[in-house]
Every structure is written in C-alpha cells, then in structure tokens.
Amino acid sequence: MRFIATIKWLDNGDIQDDMILKIGDIEDDDDEIFFYLDSERELEEFKKEGSHDWVIVDAFRDNG
C-alpha cells in the first residue's frame, strides 16, 4: 500500500510534496519510495511532531 504525502522537515521548516511512503516489504524496484512504514498506525505516528526529523502534513492513498 502506497501513500502520497506532504512532509515538513522540522529542522528548517521546509515543505516537500509528492513524497511516496509505502507500507509493506522493500522491493528492488522501489527507488522512488521515500520511506517505508510498518502499518497505518505508524503513518499516524509520523503526523505527530517531536518523534522524528520530519512530520506528515497530509497523506492520501495512491490508487494508481
């Protein structure tokens, strides 16, 4: 399952759009994946500031 996310870097406040997050196994052809997650629960954890170098501002499931 893939998600398209907008993230915010906490060190400088920069916003980046169209970051691809994936829940599932790492595959050889996943070069475009920014970050792998274990579950949708972990995706929700990345929306909270204070635990990571970046936070998810918005994310939606990639149906394509």
Please state roughly what percent of the residues sit in beta strands, choosing from under 5%, 5-15%, 15-25%, 25-35%, 35-45% or over 45%.
over 45%
Number of strands: 4
Mean of all residue-level pLDDT scores: 92
Largest sheet: 4 strands, mixed
Distance between the termini: 11 Å
Can you lay out the helices and strands and say which pair or pack?
Blueprint lengths: L1 E8 L5 E9 L9 E5 L2 H6 L8 E8 L3
Walkthrough of the structure:
- The protein has a four-stranded mixed β-sheet with strand order 3-2-1-4.
- With 64 residues, it is mainly beta.
- A hairpin with a 5-residue loop joins strand 1 and strand 2 (15-23).
- It has one helix and four strands.
- Helix content is 9%, strand content 47%.
- 8% of the residues are buried.
Features:
64 residues; mainly beta; four-stranded mixed beta sheet; 4 strands; 47% strand; globular
